[in-house]
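Example record used in the benchmark description.
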Amino acid sequence: MAGIDGRRQAALVLLCAAVFLDSMDLSLMGVALPAIQRDLSLSAGTLQWLVSGYAVAYGGFLLLGGRMADLFGRRRVFLLSLGVFAAASLAGGLLSEGWPLVVTRVVKGVAAALTAPAALSLITTTFSEGPGRNRALGIYSLAGATGYSAGLVASGLLTEVSWRLVFFLPVPIALLVVAAAPMVLPKGPPRTGSTGGFDAAGAVTATGGVLLLVYALTETNWPAGLVALLLLGAFVVVERRQPDPLIPLEVFRSRTLSAANGAALAWACATIGWQFVAVLYLQRILGYDALATGLGIVPMGLAIVVTANLAGRLVGRWGLGRVAALGMLVQACGILLFLRAGASGDYLTVLLPALVVHGVGNGLSFPSLNIAAVGGLPDDRQGLASGLITSSVQIGAGVGVALLAATMTVGGSGPDGYRLAFLVAGAFSLLGAALAYLGIRTPGADRQPARSGV
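Model output (structure tokens):
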């Protein structure tokens, strides 16, 4: 038994390393962009797509990635996609042209979209539902949050030497995980009978719809948004008629799964959108340089680390809905504390308390939402559940950043624009708290039954 436990722990470390990489890559680009633009003489549009190309591909292919993990094997999809992620990172560091560089970012986004649901579903099928799984998911969520914070700090440090190091950094970590994973990751049960067909029509309409939706939000392109809505409507029609759909619509009968995904979308609108605004505030209003900005956010990351370690115990004592709602309320308080900041906000008395409170709320809410989202479906649908929750977060991130950027424009370029954006982010967090409190129940209470023959 000790050997089995040790192998599970090793598997958890490797899977967390993968989500750490995916999250870190979201923030690594931000600080390096001016140096890349200067060295390669890139246009503003090309520069923007170094960030949005990754996000669009990540958000658009997540649901497809979850289904592929269920159909073709979680370990196989995890290893192949992580290998592609490493190759695209290496190519990006060697290129010196704008659009080929953007292509590597898009490829990395697709690879991350396949890696994330495969990794999360490997955790949920390796650890049985209960305290063990809750703790594993808490550590997994912590790795994602830590990766984002680490990316901000590492970007500042590496860009001081060369922006190419930002691309090279993920390569050795990814290759180490690929080399070690076959020794510790479970192969999964042998497949008997039919696994069902591959829903090509559902894959095209869902992936195309989400891709265009994120693109429309990023570029404020309303015709693309209309086409996205038409594709998503067509997806619903297709799924109702498919014998083996990409997303069986009956899974949304689970009140907990639906509430967890809705709250996760609101969570990402609030926290990712707020972080986008807060970083700009530190640099444009307070005059922080890139390295100082990254280091200034470190206390928030530490608060997330400490609190996420406690989240599993609190879930066992108070329940998922209450812990998730409490976390989002605390997160809202941290966001709204930034309203005290003006043109010369003091770090120790104004910014630091807001960052720490926000981090505490993050550490409580995000693990709870992940646990709730995967607790309503059986093992044969864990790839689907993982893809849904990760997709909710990524789409929420796109919506939050787009809306808060527009809000800042309406409010003006001074501190008032940032204050208005902080208010909107706080409102999203309060909405997520209400969804979590009213909708999330004990895992398994409304669980969907496993399908036969899969």
